[in-house]
Design brief:
The structure holds two protein chains of two kinds. Chain A is an all-alpha fold. Chain A contains nine helices and no strands. In chain A, helix 2 (17-39) crosses helix 4 and helix 7 crosses helix 8 (161-178). Helix content of chain B is 60%, strand content 13%. The radius of gyration of chain B is 49 Å and the shape is elongated. The N and C termini of chain B lie far apart (135 Å). Classes of the chains: A mainly alpha, B alpha+beta.
């Protein structure tokens, strides 16, 4: 943790919203990526981002600086996203029509056949990731989306590097089985 | 090469994740052109990463976040106003007594305890009652008698004392 970050955290702990804004500016994209990796849904990911920074502001007093700040924030993000995902799954039983996904901006990509294919792909990936145990899912998201090192993942998850490698290995193996067609199709791209 | 493939399965993943040492990296890079299996495995890992990561990157390109910050700011402002209500609610949520609804049996136990102990506390017997007693002293020519009798007459103690006048002086 550098001096600037330590100062921001200290100000935030005293209730300074401007300090929170600076932390938001610095981390919101990373938080969004992790959140999207778990919930695989645009609106839900934005809800998670919002929830994470509100929780951070309320709970930052508990941050004692024993670990790196980003591990604290990533853990908060992962827990909030997983919790949100669980609630969303429950809501799905009552409202199947509310399924949403990424909306491409490019005019060419807005063609109905492309959107349908994109949506199907997204659904499959989301479904496959949901089949993984929580620990494997979180490890894969940290690695594949946020590109954290093994050391950083171990810090964020409070486990050893060996455990990180094992979770990655088995998570990938299971995903590979579940997404055989997609993975093969993308190999050549 | 197949044997070395099975033993370098995790090494290949470390290489793919850019976590291998220089020595491990050069080992894999020498091995890859000679081994179709490992080459294929690497392509599968790449395909998997793309399937997971590409939609996230594309979604991120579309997002504008200022309004998210505005919502956060508003929520925090609202939260501050009702912070005392929140803290009471969160205390209730966090308190295992309320959360687990153990307060019903706990209250029942407390009421029973009060009912059992209240007669002892409020209707305690007069401590001097049991100590009330009667002591009588009777003098006679031969013996002096002291009679101790408790109030409820359950215990009676009689002492007999020889009178001093009966003692004969030494001759």
């Amino acid at each position: 943790m550098n001096d600037r970050e330590a100062e921001l955290i200290s100000r935030c702990q005293q209730g300074d919203q401007d300090a929170l804004k600076e932390i938001f500016d610095q981390y919101h994209k990373k938080v969004y990526r992790i959140a999207y990796g778990v919930v695989r849904h645009r609106e839900d990911a934005l809800d998670v981002v919002q929830e994470v920074f509100i929780k951070l502001f309320r709970s930052i007093k508990d941050f004692k600086g024993k670990s790196a700040f980003y591990t604290y924030l990533y853990r908060l993000t992962m827990n909030t996203a997983i919790d949100h995902s669980r609630k969303a799954k429950r809501a799905l039983f009552f409202s199947l029509d509310e399924e949403g996904s990424f909306q491409p901006s490019d005019a060419q990509e807005k063609r109905p056949d492309h959107i349908a294919a994109q949506k199907e792909l997204e659904e499959k990936v989301r479904w496959a990731i949901d089949q993984l145990p929580q620990d494997q899912k979180a490890t894969l998201i940290y690695r594949e989306i946020e590109e954290l090192s093994y050391q950083e993942i171990a810090g964020a998850m409070g486990c050893s590097i060996g455990t990180v490698m094992s979770r990655l290995h088995y998570g990938r193996k299971k995903l590979q089985d579940l997404l055989k067609d997609i993975v093969k199709g993308r190999e050549g791209q | 090469m197949k044997d070395s493939c099975s033993s370098t399965s995790q090494l290949l993943e470390r290489y793919f994740d850019r976590q291998a040492t220089d020595e491990e990296r050069s080992l894999v890079e020498r091995h890859l052109p000679l081994c179709q299996t490992c080459h294929e495995r690497l392509r599968v890992l790449e395909g998997l990463r793309k399937a997971i990561k590409t939609p996230v990157d594309e979604a991120l390109k579309e997002e504008t976040f200022p309004w998210v910050w505005e919502k956060i700011e508003r929520e925090i402002r609202l939260g501050k106003k009702s912070s005392w209500q929140e803290s009471v609610r969160s205390w209730i949520d966090l308190s295992p007594l309320f959360r687990k609804k153990v307060w019903i049996p706990a209250m029942a136990a407390a009421i029973i305890l009060i009912l059992v102990t209240s007669p002892l506390l409020f209707f305690k017997k007069d401590p001097s009652y049991s100590e009330r007693s009667v002591v009588e002293y009777v003098e006679s020519g031969v013996y002096n008698v002291m009679v101790y009798e408790s109030e409820n007459a359950k215990v009676t103690v009689i002492w007999l004392f020889e009178g001093p006048q009966t003692e004969s002086p030494a001759s």
